[in-house]
Design brief:
Layout: H1 2-10, H2 14-38, H3 41-44, H4 48-55, H5 60-63
Helix pairs in contact: 1-2
């Protein structure tokens, strides 16, 4: 899994590796949502939450975390 590679390569602790992964995922999700919005995919989706879970495999646990 990615955490193991980050920890080994950069000597990161688990907490720091998790924050980095959350930041990377956040950027990816925002870009994908922007594309989905501009192409009308979100408009056609049953709900934005359903879109996130099914299309992006978004973990609802992370949606409530503060990435700052």
């Amino acid at each position: 899994y990615c955490f193991g590679y980050l920890k080994e390569i950069f000597g990161l602790n688990k907490s720091k590796a998790e924050r980095i992964m959350l930041e990377v995922f956040s950027v990816f999700y925002l870009r994908r949502l922007s594309k989905a919005f501009s192409q009308g995919e979100l408009e056609r989706a049953t709900s934005k939450g359903t879109f996130l879970r099914s299309e992006l495999h978004f973990d609802p646990f992370h949606s409530s975390e503060d990435s700052s």
